[in-house]
Specification:
Layout lengths: L1 E6 L3 H11 L5 E5 L12 E2 L1 H10 L2 H7 L1 E2 L3 E5 L2 E6 L17 E2 L2 H14 L5 E2 L3 E6 L4 E5 L4 E9 L6 H6 L3 E17 L8 E6 L4 E8 L6 E7 L5 H8 L7 E15 L3 E2 L2 E3 L5 E2 L7 H18 L2 H28 L43 E3 L9 E3 L8 E4 L5 E5 L4 H7 L12
Length: about 450
């Protein structure tokens, strides 16, 4: 029996697969689409996600093929009326090595993650649609369209906003779908715009946009985004507001409704929901893809260790984050706010109310010792009499007590060393706690 079946091979499913694979967990990752998707869709990788991608072993390629977001240039016709940035670039620091948003087409992010997964001995099974789901006290059975029955100890639905897994579980997906508020995305080619700016037509003062055209790194393609309904004819839309710009080719296009929804539960028995299967956002602030990656990063090490007490904390921690992020992205969308930074970089997200978070600093992201956090193990920071099977590092300035840092970089326990054994045993966490980077 497979330990974990992952349904869906977007960034969420791939992150989870890598997290499990590098820990030696037996897995299958199935995808109903016959091949990797085209089109850019999401393109912004937030600083916290870049830290996760560093730990997964793909950051060099992500940075080499992506780029920082270009400055915005706003037009009336062919006249430039404003230039500026969504966020001022920040300098890296030891605790924040990737402080700036990186633009990377989603298809390339997925390709890089698939290659990393292949290095770890696993591949996505394309054309494997899940049509049925059954679970009992011992495991989960996924029924594929081919008739194959896949048995596993746990199953994770990372299969998007229309999640078959969520529907099969009967989990309500509460929120709103704004039928009158739609967005049009298109990948286009044009020779009439430079690739050093993100071009926009509309009124920034009135926070209204006709359309934007953004150059995509490492390609000759731009992403055009526009409110919809409007012109079905992209050429007519552009001609109305920017007659000097000609679309040479439409490579891909998609229309979608604005959805703001969250599942009532992120877990039902041995089945978990992650990414868009659990929560969908407005496109503002670039939070959706990034939040899904964080879901997977939170869940992966817990599934690998496998104790029930640990697995119960996934829903507690990630539902609270999803609620916060849904509120943030909705406000950004409604206010048409273009500025980004501390609110959207996800570096400040924490788990202070989690059962796993004990002590004054419990639940905080540990910015220090970034390089030492790479890998799949726990860290113990402070003066200790025993290592408890973890890698031990010197105390931080002004630190009292010891810090136990979880594999996902958040502080689990902060307190006297005498309470550490009880904390670990309470969550079924057994020594050794350390592991080499993989």
């Amino acid at each position: 029996m497979t330990h974990v079946t992952i349904v869906g091979s977007g960034p969420t499913g791939l992150t989870l697969a890598i997290e499990l694979a590098r820990r030696g967990v037996d897995l299958r990752i199935v995808e109903r689409s016959p091949e990797p998707p085209g089109g850019v869709r999401g393109k912004g990788l937030q600083p916290r996600t870049l830290e996760v991608l560093d730990d997964l072993g793909v950051i060099d390629e992500i940075l080499a093929t992506g780029r920082a977001y270009p400055p915005l240039r706003s037009y009336q016709g062919d006249r430039v009326v404003w230039e500026g940035r969504m966020d001022e670039p920040r300098e890296p620091s030891p605790g924040t090595p990737y402080p700036n948003l990186i633009m990377q087409p989603q298809w390339r992010t997925e390709a890089i993650l698939r290659d990393r997964l292949a290095e770890l001995g696993h591949r996505v099974e394309f054309g494997a649609e899940v049509t049925g789901l059954e679970q009992d006290a011992d495991g989960v059975t996924a029924v594929l369209a081919t008739g194959e029955r896949v048995r596993s100890a746990y199953l994770v639905g990372a299969d998007g906003g229309r999640s078959t897994v969520r529907k099969r579980l009967g989990v309500p997906f509460r929120g709103e779908t704004y039928d009158s508020e739609r967005m049009l995305l298109a990948d286009i080619r044009t020779r009439d715009l430079d690739r050093d700016h993100w071009h926009a037509w509309g009124s920034l003062a009135e926070r209204s946009i006709h359309f934007t055209v953004c150059p995509l790194p490492g390609t000759d393609v731009f992403q055009l985004a526009a409110p919809y309904p409007g012109h079905d004819d992209l050429a007519a839309l552009v001609a109305e507001h920017a007659p000097h710009v000609r679309i040479d080719e439409v490579v891909w296009r998609s229309e979608y409704r604005v959805n703001i929804r969250m599942a009532d539960r992120f877990r039902s028995g041995r089945v978990f929901l992650a990414g868009d299967a659990a929560h969908v956002h407005s496109p503002a602030g670039g939070q959706g893809l990034n939040t899904g990656v964080q879901d997977a990063y939170n869940l992966g090490w817990k599934l690998a260790l496998g104790s029930e007490a640990l697995l119960e904390t996934y829903e507690d921690e990630r539902m609270a984050v999803a609620e916060h992020v849904l509120g943030l992205s909705t406000r950004l969308y409604r206010d048409r706010e273009i500025k980004r930074g501390d609110d959207t970089d996800q570096l400040g997200l924490a788990y202070p109310g989690s059962p796993l978070s004990v002590g004054e600093r419990g639940g905080e992201r540990l910015g220090a010792y970034f390089a030492e956090q790479r890998g799949t193990g726990f860290l113990l920071v402070g003066e200790v009499t025993a290592d408890h099977g973890a890698r031990v590092l010197p105390p931080l300035p002004g630190q009292e007590g010891v810090l136990l840092v979880r594999p996902d970089g958040y502080i689990g326990y902060h307190g006297d060393e005498s309470g550490l054994s009880a904390y670990l045993s309470g969550f079924g966490i057994a020594a050794p706690l350390s592991s080499a980077a993989s």
